[in-house]
Amino acid sequence: MPGKYFIRPGWAVLILLSLFIFYDQALRYFDFSSSAYSDDLKPFTGVLIVHICTSLVALLAGPLQFIKSLRKKYTRFHRMTGRTYMSCVLIGGTSGLYLAVFHLILTAHYITFGTGLSGLAIAWLTTSGMGLRSILHKNFQQHREWMIRSYTVTCAFTTFRLLFAIIENMLPVEKIDIYNICAWSCWAVPLLIVEVILQSKKQVPLFMQQASL
């Protein structure tokens, strides 16, 4: 299949893009004297650093789960990276939910922005949890599908920044409104697209259904 030749380059582009965005947008939070730390964010510094670090590890570990040759030849490595990914999602998702609720909603009063990122954290924990549940029940097909959904949400870190840059440069929208839009669309829209793709592969053509009757 011609498409297989684009898989690894595609992963490489995604990782390089994510690392660039991390360098450009997230690295500044490791400088605790940075202007990125507003007065209302400073009390959440520790939780924010934990969230950034675990989310980055999950982002980098995810592609290793989908490379078929690694999965087939190095089963132990696949399980190890899978456990690493799941652990980072648990910590990153929980810390993200904590930041969304206690910083954005209750402290800064960014309700729409905060609820969007709360939904992101819940979707991340839920899709990953379902992936774990399915593999524990040895349902490999469902496990693969749930992990695709999980990693789609993991990539919200990258999707958010891309959407933000596009909207900021193309539409006359206030910055807070862009944050609100991206907080929801960075994970909900990609999940919808992925779900359509996953389900479309399962649809049996009508003539095949009639032939089996």
Description:
The model has no long low-confidence stretch (mean pLDDT 88). It is built from nine helices and no strands. The chain has one domain. It is 79% helix and 0% strand. The two termini are 32 Å apart. The protein is globular and about 50 Å long. The protein is mainly alpha-helical and 213 residues long. Helix 7 packs across helix 8.
What's the arrangement of secondary structure elements?
Layout: H1 7-26, H2 45-66, H3 68-73, H4 75-105, H5 111-136, H6 140-154, H7 156-170, H8 175-200, H9 206-212
Helix pairs in contact: 1-2, 2-4, 4-5, 5-6, 5-8, 6-8, 7-8
Keywords:
213 residues, mainly alpha
Structural class: mainly alpha
- What is the number of strand segments? 0
Oligomerization status of the protein chains: single chain
What does the main sheet amount to?
none
Q: Low-confidence runs (pLDDT<50, min 5 residues)?
A: none
User: Helix count?
Assistant: 9
**Mean pLDDT score, rounded?**
88
Whole-angstrom Rg: 19 Å
Helical content class:
over 70%
Straight-line N-to-C gap = 32 Å
Order of helices and strands: HHHHHHHHH
Shape: globular
Overall tally of structural domains: 1
β content, as a range? under 5%
